[in-house]
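[recover] target loaded
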């Protein structure tokens, strides 16, 4: 596992052994950041709600995002994330929390943090958690005006086209994985054949 672009390109990251976490593959990570090139260049805040090793948030920082928020319930994940932050020298550009994604969303809302990019990659089995977090993020309005919410799921999970104030404007499949992109803006939908509500 490594940083694939930006100032820390090629830097190897500490991983977690075993199958407890499922890091986003480099191919998918590259595709996500390629899809968000303009947004990443303009972004001030990147949020990783299930940080694992911290790879996605650290990729964002390497590409120029100013500040990263990392949330995970696992102490091992938080420790690994902190090791990777230290490896890259990003201690002054991060906020790391050993708490659930839902608690993280609540905290961001209470502190009026406006997030430019939120990445969410929960365990594939936690489908209800995905739906609940999507609704929370929409209701709490923590996305900035042009912010993007990116959700990684197993391909069989049916994500809504519209949820309150968020619209899925793009959905891409990579093997067993689907990446869904949401925004507060109204887009002409690109490859997103999903139900309008759930």
């Amino acid at each position: 596992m490594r940083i694939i672009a930006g100032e820390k390109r090629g830097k190897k990251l500490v991983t977690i052994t075993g199958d407890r976490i499922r890091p986003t593959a480099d191919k998918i990570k590259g595709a996500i950041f390629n899809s968000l090139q303009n947004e990443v260049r303009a972004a001030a805040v990147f949020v990783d709600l299930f940080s694992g090793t911290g790879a996605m948030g650290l990729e964002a920082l390497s590409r120029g995002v100013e500040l990263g928020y990392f949330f995970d319930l696992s102490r091992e994940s938080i420790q690994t994330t902190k090791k990777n932050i230290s490896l890259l020298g990003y201690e002054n550009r991060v906020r790391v929390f050993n708490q659930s994604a839902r608690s993280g969303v609540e905290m961001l809302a209470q502190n009026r943090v406006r997030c430019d990019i939120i990445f969410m990659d929960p365990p594939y089995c936690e489908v209800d958690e995905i739906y609940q977090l999507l609704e929370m993020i929409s209701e709490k309005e923590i996305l900035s005006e042009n912010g993007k919410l990116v959700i990684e799921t197993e391909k069989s999970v049916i994500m809504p086209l519209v949820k309150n104030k968020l619209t899925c404007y793009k959905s891409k499949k990579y093997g067993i994985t689907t990446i869904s992109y949401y925004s507060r803006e109204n887009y002409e939908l690109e490859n997103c054949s999903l139900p309008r509500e759930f």
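[recover] notes: The beta strands are 45-48, 67-71, 94-97, 115-120, 143-154, 162-163, 166-174, 177-183.
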